């Protein structure tokens, strides 16, 4: 039996009072000895930060999922452990974005992953986090020349 | 990160459109014409909203312009967060009892099932809802609609589906509200829903509407789903068997996620 899917709709502007709870961006305690920070900014097609986006992060395993709203500068941050596998799975929602987008944040040492090799060379870097003093930085660009690669799964 | 606005022809066109729409100067008739033009371009088998949908002004700079990259889900993408009874309070499923008094408005129950694309119930999984109050006002600091806040209504609910995939909330019917997409723009009354499946690829955030809303044809968010049958799947049905005598009206709305990408477990069949 195959059923027609319920369509998506935008998360709208007023979601944080419902969707964002204290600590939901901390997959593990910041005091955890292996805790790292994955952070970044979300930008629109004019290069402006998106202050009303919702980013969900999956690393897998126990304590495997979290959620963060962007701030006025479009910034988000998670405290997490390294992903189970070579990438974090990321889902993006925003006012103005009519359905969710899926992407992946590969760690720098996974930059030779076969999936990245399938992409045009000038777009591969949009899926690779860069190491910095806080942990890893991963910016999300919804539109434009340096647009993040977003994914379509077979049964989407 | 500097501004790149004004660079490409697309950005110039969008900037012009947005500079006029920021002041909400587009008339409903202009938006209606854009909605009609988009509808005329619909192709068969387009069940999801079109991300590039100019009548919804905020989508102009927030949709990808490059094709989505086909990908086979790997590893953690075949996993989903699991929420348990310990994560929720049963009172979260009744939005009318979360304060010292009762909220104003039409008390209603909304219930239905969450299924995957193969018709299997999505069991013991989290359903989140949020909504405006009966006057069309959200309890969000940035909502400036001059309708009263209801001190007895937060508009936030959560529950887990049961073993058959059923969810149920008691709430009040939200009101329509104005927004600044264009002049005299109003959203049809709706409840936001957030759903998880058994793997990440099934993640869904959407909106449930009420039957017969006169604002449907005017609303670019609803109309961004070009297939009429698909967008009607967002409209709940009034169900007199859900309605409770001397207490509340009842609506039924079933939700179908995309198919699970996992090999079904025996317990799923």
Structural class of chain B: alpha+beta
Pattern of helices and strands of chain A: HEEEEEEHHEEEE
Proportion of residues in helical segments of chain A = under 10%
Low-confidence parts of chain B: 1-5
Q: Please state the structural category of chain A.
A: mainly beta
Provide a count of the helices of chain B. 4
Q: Helix count of chain A?
A: 3
Backbone shape of chain A: globular
- Beta-strand residue fraction of chain A: 25-35%
Which assembly state applies to the chains in this document? Answer: heterodimer
Report mean pLDDT of chain A, rounded to a whole number: 95
SSE run of chain B: HHEEEEEEEEEHHEEE
Helix coverage percent of residues of chain B?
Answer: 10-25%
Verbal overview:
The complex is a heterodimer of chains A (156) and B (269). Chain A is mostly beta strands and 156 residues long. Helices cover 8% and strands 31% of the residues of chain A. The longest helix of chain A has 4 residues, at 16-19. Chain A is globular, with a radius of gyration of 15 Å. Chain B has helices at residues 9-21, 28-40, 220-223, 228-232, and strands at residues 69-70, 107-115, 126-131, 156-160, 166-172, 177-179, 185-187, 190-195, 204-209, 237-238, 249-252, 255-256. In chain B, β6 and β7 form a beta hairpin. Residues 1-5 of chain B have low confidence and may be disordered. Classes of the chains: A mainly beta (156), B alpha+beta (269). At the A-B interface, α1, β5 and β10 of A face α1, β1, β3, β9 and α4 of B.
Concise synopsis of the structure shown:
With about 160 residues, chain A is mainly beta. In chain B, the strands form three sheets. In chain B, strands 2, 5, 10, 11 and 12 form a five-stranded mixed beta sheet that branches.
């Amino acid at each position: 039996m195959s059923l027609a899917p319920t369509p998506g709709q935008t998360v709208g502007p007023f979601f944080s009072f419902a969707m964002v709870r204290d600590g939901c961006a901390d997959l593990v305690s910041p005091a955890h000895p292996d805790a790292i920070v994955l952070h970044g900014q979300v930008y629109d097609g004019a290069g402006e930060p998106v202050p009303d986006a919702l980013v969900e992060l999956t690393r897998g395993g126990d304590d495997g999922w979290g959620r963060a709203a962007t701030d006025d500068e479009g910034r988000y941050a998670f405290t997490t452990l390294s992903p189970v596998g070579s990438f974090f799975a990321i889902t993006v929602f925003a006012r103005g974005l009519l359905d969710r987008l899926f992407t992946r944040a590969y760690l720098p040492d996974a930059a030779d992953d076969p999936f990245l090799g399938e992409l045009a060379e000038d777009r591969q870097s949009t899926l690779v986090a860069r190491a910095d003093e806080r942990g890893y930085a991963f910016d999300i660009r919804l539109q434009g020349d340096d647009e993040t690669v977003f994914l379509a799964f077979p049964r989407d | 990160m500097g501004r790149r606005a004004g660079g490409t022809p697309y950005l110039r066109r969008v900037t012009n459109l947005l500079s006029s729409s920021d002041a909400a100067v587009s008339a409903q008739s202009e938006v209606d014409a854009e909605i009609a033009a988009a509808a005329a371009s619909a192709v068969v088998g387009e069940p999801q909203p079109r991300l590039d949908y100019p009548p919804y002004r905020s989508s102009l700079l927030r949709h990808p312009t490059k094709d989505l990259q086909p990908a086979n889900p790997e590893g953690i993408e075949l996993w989903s967060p699991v929420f348990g009874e310990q994560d929720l309070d049963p009172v979260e499923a009744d939005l009318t009892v979360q304060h010292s008094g009762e909220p104003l408005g039409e008390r209603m129950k909304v219930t239905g099932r969450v299924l995957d694309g193969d018709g299997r119930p999505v069991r013991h999984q989290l359903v989140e809802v949020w909504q405006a109050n009966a006057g069309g006002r959200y309890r969000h600091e940035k909502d400036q609609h001059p309708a009263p806040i209801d001190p007895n209504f937060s508009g936030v609910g959560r529950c887990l589906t049961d073993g058959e995939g059923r969810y149920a909330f008691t709430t009040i019917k939200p009101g329509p509200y104005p927004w600044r997409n264009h002049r005299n723009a109003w959203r049809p009354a709706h409840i936001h829903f957030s759903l998880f499946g058994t793997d990440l690829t099934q993640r869904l955030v959407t909106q449930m509407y009420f039957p017969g809303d006169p604002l449907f044809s005017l609303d670019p968010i609803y109309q961004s789903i070009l297939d009429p049958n698909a967008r009607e799947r967002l409209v709940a049905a009034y169900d007199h068997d859900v309605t409770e005598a001397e207490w509340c009206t009842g609506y039924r709305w079933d939700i179908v996620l995309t198919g699970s990408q996992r090999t079904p477990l025996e317990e799923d069949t």
